[in-house]
Amino acid sequence: MSPLGAEIAALIRQNGPIGVDRYMALCLGHPLHGYYRTRDPLGARGDFTTAPEISQMFGELIGAWSAYVHELMGRPDPLVLVELGPGRGTLMADALRALRAARPGMRVAPQLVETSPVLRAAQERLLAGTGAAWHADSESLPPGPAIILANEFFDCLPVRQFERRPTGWHERQVGLDPQGGLAFGLSPEPTPGLDADGPDGSLMSVPTAGLALMRSLARRLCTQGGTLLAIDYGHVRPGFGDTLQALSGHRFADPLAAPGEADLTHHVDFAAHAKAAQAEGAAIHGPVDQGDFLAALGLGARAERLKARANAAQSAAIDAAITRLTDPSRGGMGSLFKVMAVSGPALGPLPGFPAA
Fold first, then answer.
1. pLDDT in tens, 190-246
2. N or C: which end of the chain has fewer CB within 10 A?
3. Comparing C-alpha atoms, which of 232, 239, 229 is closest to residue 337?
């Protein structure tokens, strides 16, 4: 058992089973043993690869998108450009380069919301000289109109899970098996107030942390202006099923096997997040498939420009990156990943999304 696993087991022995949301929060954010506190999880030596790490084209297109949206916002000076969970800083660096190419002399105030000391150090190295500022959460961001980027961010925010039984929806918990290992179980009492209709045995995830953040950001956008661009893997319609998963060494793993040693994520419920934002008065754009979004922003043309200056090996790498980013087959990033924008009601239409 991992050091964090032993600590969680001791906690359960003392206080009883814990919810999946608390388990996720401990696995990812524990101050000593949390997954994101102790490592750089990206790339071939890590556990997963995100779109910005696949190709510079991804971040450049997001930067070009931001330049267009900046115009729609009335050119606030400086542009407050926020990224939530910015990885190594690759997306921000590529987006800033594209922004400054599109708008020479434009002032940008990069703001990064990051809790990992390891990743923050990588971001500081990459973004040195850009005027970037760092925040532990979104509450300390500077006021005013902002473009907020969230690529593969909402999927790692803790969720609560519930299983349907004849007596109602019982919360899924992490407890101990007879041998003292971690095991999933159910609260003996149903959770009051859950009236979703589902068959017996069905599992429902409620992204409590993500919905709370979405409501907060939507209120900001409605009162101060700007937009949130969320890119993540998930589904556009509500449904049942267990999408909680662990990744280790680019392979799926048992979420309970090694707490703190594997990434924990879930599929984002875009419908629930859109509903939360709309309840605060925000406008929703999309969601659309990532492949369609990137194509609408000119991924093909950008690739051809890069290939015009590339050798054969570089051209092949560009083609391979396009395939990875836009593959529409089952499980491919092009269709599995969705893109949704949230804005104040007066902003739009936005590039990359069908007109309402």
1. 999 888 888 999 999 999 999 999 999 999 999 999 999 999 999 998 788 899 999
2. C
3. 232
CA pair distance 141, 82, nearest whole angstrom: 8
Please say whether the beta carbons of 155 and 266 come within 8 A. Answer: yes
Q: At what angle do helices 299-307 and 56-72 cross, to 10 degrees?
A: 130
The pair of structure tokens assigned to 186 is 């159910």
Do 291 and 24 contact (CB within 8 A), yes or no? Answer: no
Question: Number of helices and strands (H, E) in the chain?
Answer: 13, 16
Query: Per DSSP, what are the bridge partners of residue 134?
Result: 112
Token digits of residue 197: 């209709």
Please name every residue paired with 169 in a beta bridge, in sequence order, or none if there are none: 164
The span from the CA of 307 to the CA of 351, in Å, is: 25
Tokens of 308: 């015009």
In sequence order, which ranges of the chain are alpha helices (DSSP H)?
3-15, 20-29, 35-38, 51-54, 56-72, 90-102, 117-126, 208-224, 270-279, 290-296, 299-307, 312-326, 333-336
Query: Strand pairing of 108-113 and 79-84?
Result: parallel
Would you give the DSSP letter of residue 198? -
Side chain identity at 24, as an amino acid letter? M
**Closest residue by Cα to residue 59 from 90, 104, 101, 103:** 90
User: pLDDT, tens digit, for every residue of 104-138?
Assistant: 999 999 999 999 999 999 999 999 999 999 999 99
